[in-house]
């Protein structure tokens, strides 16, 4: 009977968070990732190698966008399907050596979000979601220097109600 009571008490403590059981090796701690903070020049389209992936439900979307990118001078390497958890029109993925190329592609796709991975080369992946509509018109592409956009890594500051001035 004492073992049953002890088991019930321990189960309640675990359920309430008063006791934490760790079985096996601890999970490694992952360093927080931040958005690259550098300012990038718009790279010439012909110097950017891109893979285009369709993560949406429109068949042939990656191939059509790849053709549009080729017509702009981008070097398209791979066209395929891929999945993503992001709910933005497009996700731009590169390693550190592809930051400028990713910036250039981000300027061609409205509301695209940048994500960094650990690849060593300068290729960039463009993952199109079901929210993607089209590339920006060539004349509307902003070619001025700027930063990568990573909203998930740099969330906007929360808005707080202004503090009333002290009475007196």
SS-derived structural category: alpha/beta
Q: Helix segment count?
A: 3
Percent helix? 10-25%
Count of β-strands: 5
Mean pLDDT: 85
Give the distance, in angstroms, between the N- and C-terminal Cα atoms: 67 Å
Rg measurement, Å? 23 Å
Order of helices and strands: HEHEEHEE
Strand content: 15-25%
Strand order of the largest sheet: 2-1-5-3-4
The coarse overall form would be elongated
Characterize the main sheet.
5 strands, mixed
Pick out the low-confidence regions: 28-32, 156-162
Walk me through the structure.
This protein is α/β, with parallel strands linked by helices and 168 residues long. Helix content is 21%, strand content 17%. It contains three helices and five strands. The protein has helices at 2-16, 61-71, 99-108; strands spanning 49-54, 75-81, 90-94, 112-116, 124-128. It has a five-stranded mixed beta sheet with strand order 2-1-5-3-4, covered by helices on one side. Helix 2 links the parallel strand 1 and strand 2. It is elongated, with a radius of gyration of 23 Å. 26% of the residues are buried.
Secondary structure topology:
Elements: H1 2-16, E1 49-54, H2 61-71, E2 75-81, E3 90-94, H3 99-108, E4 112-116, E5 124-128
In short:
The chain is α/β, with parallel strands linked by helices. It is 21% helix and 17% strand. The chain contains 3 helices and 5 strands.
């Amino acid at each position: 009977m004492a073992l049953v009571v002890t088991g019930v008490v321990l189960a309640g403590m675990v359920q309430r968070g008063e006791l934490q059981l760790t079985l096996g090796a601890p999970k490694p701690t992952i360093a927080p990732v931040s958005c690259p903070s550098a300012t990038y020049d718009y790279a010439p389209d012909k110097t950017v190698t891109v893979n285009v992936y369709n993560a949406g439900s429109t068949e042939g979307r990656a191939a059509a966008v790849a053709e549009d990118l080729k017509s702009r001078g981008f070097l398209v390497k791979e066209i395929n399907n891929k999945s993503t958890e992001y709910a933005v029109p497009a996700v731009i993925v590169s390693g550190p050596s592809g930051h400028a190329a990713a910036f250039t592609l981000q300027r061609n796709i409205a509301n695209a979000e940048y994500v960094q991975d650990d690849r060593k080369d300068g290729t960039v992946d463009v993952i199109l979601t079901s929210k993607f509509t089209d590339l920006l018109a060539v004349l509307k592409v902003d070619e001025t220097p700027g930063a990568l956009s990573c909203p998930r890594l740099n969330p906007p500051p929360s808005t707080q109600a202004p503090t009333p001035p002290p009475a007196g």
